[in-house]
Specification:
six-stranded antiparallel β-sheet, Immunoglobulin-like, Coagulation Factor XIII, Chain A, domain 2, 11 helices, alpha+beta, 4 domains, 701 residues, six-stranded mixed β-sheet
């Protein structure tokens, strides 16, 4: 009597991965999603008989044991084990086809499969199976009903991250690359590093929180080291990345934090990690996002007497933009009504429960003002709902005195943006985070939020903050109004010519009054260069004018900055900078004051990509990148960065200096290794410009 032995096992990879939407992963092993059947074919040394014992054993972790549910022993005759099911599809001689369905709330991770027959144990080659979250399965908490959304938020491996300023938003193409080689392994390594228990690994809320901590290197030697100093010699400048793949591959290879990231890089990498693990995820950009407000819902901006913003006094800041992520899930840990998108943020800003992590915070909780809900909802609420208060600092008898020159209650958390589903355009999702400004719902939501957050009093709080006294909530006006001025004073800041580096910056401040009477307006205006974090890098020039206006009328005051005033600074900075214009108007007759600021970005000539619209798998084609320097300035140390997922790895071309009027052309021979629509992303950086990027699609047949 020969004992039953397994002679081989076929994981039926192409059939299983197609059904599980995992055929994109570039990995030898079988990758499947939880709660959905997959099949394996077991070959035996003889036919199965009535008394034979056969079981599939799935083990997770270092030393799997049955009672901890880290070892699942599935026997075809005993169908259900901890929510996992197994059945015999058909027996055919020595072949046995089995169907396995994991539990829709199984722990996500790597499972080792052994087959036990009697006392024999068969350990197959590549017997590690990767189990992911399943947005296609109705019983999984990450279930997403809409197929177009699943395609975008789970399967799309490219996208755009929106940056710039509220005045001029632009898209930065980003390769998420969740299916590339070693990316899934890097995510599994992060899961192991997270030390989450198997129970915690069932829940995307715990997994996404852990990943928001591990994508930054701050307290756990995670993936990326943040750096906003402007000095990146010991690593890669945050501006030089065009996707997550190189970062995650390098991290997985070295197990050391990769240098350096800023918010869009953290968000790009976290988006890759979540999509890779099977949680629907999107990058979300908020323009004029408040930071470090210590939850008092107020950001103070200090100006000198010339109207220039001062860095030194501000503890808190308004970033021109900030990028985080929304992950999609049911929140089983919360009361009804908070399912759907959850904000998570891996940019290290402040600690939450002792680690640099943020979220998941229900987007609906932010909108409704339910800021007591976990996790970090007060912090996220403040980022999109704070007020901005302007102070002018004047010397009076040798001492600094603070004069309030304006309050903006609707300036923070504007144009919240993400890439549209199935289209290459920006979708505005501000309405998901906030009710319309001034609506009844917004007032209700704000009153709710204020009952959980105790804002401090309205005295200025400069650096040493000793003068701060906390006012009781009763004194805090619940619905701050935009200060209505008696004169209807209105200030608008625009550029009158395109803002090309090397040209004069030509802008205008328009001052308007709209009530009868003769008005004298003292106007101060300044132009500065600042990082997207609001940190001023250079003062470029100021104006001071007194204007006479009558009734409803306006006057435009030009503000012009010569190239010599800013080109040297621009060329010496490693980061992209924005042009900040601040204007303070004061009406002599009524003492009305109003402050307005606008950030604008430089405009650059485009890169064009030339290549065929379609190509055949494994057949070479040529892709050309063309750039004409239409600026009046030499672009020094030009580098062209290109990457095409499924076509070629990230490549850098050194282009040297490109003279005004000159054309640069680079060609790359491409060999497509994967079918479907693929994108090529290109970015040009030089000393003078940091942010010209483009992308183009090609269909591989």
């Amino acid at each position: 009597e020969s004992s039953l032995k397994v002679t081989g096992i076929d994981f039926l990879k192409s059939q299983n991965t197609r059904q599980h939407h995992t055929d994109g992963y570039n990995i030898k092993n079988l990758v499947v999603r939880r709660g959905q059947p997959f099949q394996v074919q077991v070959s035996l040394n003889r036919e199965l008989r009535a008394g034979d014992k056969l079981s599939l054993r799935f083990g997770i972790g270092e030393n799997p044991v049955k009672n901890r549910e880290s070892l699942l022993s599935l026997k075809p005759e005993r169908e259900d084990f901890h929510g996992w099911k197994i059945s015999t599809v058909k027996k055919n001689g020595k072949e046995c086809l089995l169907s396995v369905t994991s539990s829709p709330n199984a722990a996500v991770g790597k499972y080792n499969l052994h087959v036990k027959t009697g006392t024999n144990i068969y350990k197959p080659e590549n017997g590690v199976i990767y189990l992911l979250f399943n947005p296609w399965c109705e019983d999984d908490v990450v279930y997403m009903a809409n197929e177009a959304q699943r395609k975008e938020y789970v399967l799309n491996d490219t996208g755009y991250i929106y940056v710039g300023s509220a005045y001029s938003i632009y898209d930065r193409p980003w390769n998420y690359g969740q299916f590339e080689e070693f990316v899934l392994d890097a995510c599994m390594y992060l899961l192991e590093k997270s030390k989450l228990s198997l129970t915690d690994r069932r829940d995307p809320a715990n997994v996404s929180r852990a990943m928001s901590a591990l994508v930054n290197a701050n307290d756990d030697r995670g993936v990326l080291l943040g750096n906003w100093s402007g000095n990146y010699v010991s690593g890669t400048s945050p501006m030089d990345w065009i996707g997550s793949v190189t970062i995650l591959q390098q991290y997985y290879k070295t197990k050391k934090p990769v240098r350096y990231g800023q918010c869009w890089v953290f968000a790009g990498v976290l988006n890759t990690v979540m999509r890779c693990l099977g949680v629907p995820c999107r990058c979300v950009s908020t323009f004029d996002a408040a930071h470090d407000t210590e939850e008092n819902l107020r950001v103070d901006v200090y100006l000198n007497e010339r109207g220039e913003k001062l860095n030194s006094l501000s503890l808190d800041s308004v970033w021109n933009f900030h990028v985080w992520n929304d992950a999609w899930m049911k929140r089983t840990d919360l009361p009804e009504g908070f399912n759907g998108w959850q904000a998570i943020d891996s940019t290290p800003q402040e600690q939450s429960q002792g680690r640099f992590q943020c979220g998941p915070c229900p987007v609906k909780a932010v909108r409704e003002g339910d800021v007591y809900l976990p996790y970090d909802s007060k912090f996220v609420y403040a980022e999109v709902n704070a007020d901005r208060v302007y102070w002018v600092v004047k010397k009076v008898n040798g001492k600094d005195k603070y004069f309030k020159v304006g309050t903006e209650t609707q300036a923070i958390g504007k144009n919240i943006s993400t890439k549209a589903v199935g289209e290459n355009r920006r979708e505005d999702i501000t309405r998901e985070y906030k009710y319309p400004e001034g609506s009844k719902e917004e007032r209700m939501s704000m009153q709710r939020a204020y009952s959980f957050i105790r804002p401090v009093g309205m005295a200025p709080h400069p650096g040493y903050a000793s003068t701060m006294e906390t006012l009781g909530r009763s004194i805090q006006p619940l619905v701050p109004k935009e200060p209505g001025t008696k004169t209807g004073l209105h200030i608008e800041i625009t550029n009158t010519e395109p803002l090309h580096p090397g040209n004069p910056l030509e802008m205008a401040i328009t001052v308007r009054t709209s009530t009868p009477g003769n008005w004298t307006v003292d106007l101060i205006g300044s132009c500065q260069l600042q990082y997207y974090t609001g940190k001023v890098q250079a003062n470029l020039g100021t104006i001071k004018e007194t204007i006479k206006l009558e009734g409803t009328s306006e006057m435009q005051i030009p503000l012009k900055i010569a190239p010599d005033a800013y080109m040297k600074t621009l060329s010496s900075l490693e980061d992209e900078v924005l042009i900040l214009v601040t204007a303070v108007g004061e009406v002599k007759e009524t003492n009305d004051k109003l402050t307005k600021e606008t950030s604008m970005r430089f405009e650059y000539p485009p890169i064009t990509v030339q290549m065929p619209e379609t190509a055949k798998l494994y057949n070479d084609f040529t892709c050309a990148f063309i750039f004409k320097n239409k600026l009046n300035v030499v672009l020094e140390n030009c580098k062209l960065l290109v990457e095409g997922l499924g076509i070629f790895k990230m490549t850098t071309f050194d282009q040297g200096d490109i003279m005004p009027g000159r054309i640069m052309k680079s060609e790359i021979i491409c060999t497509p290794t994967r079918l479907g629509e693929k994108k090529i992303v290109a970015k040009l950086i030089s000393n003078q410009i940091k942010g010209i990027s483009t992308e183009k699609a090609i269909t591989i047949t």
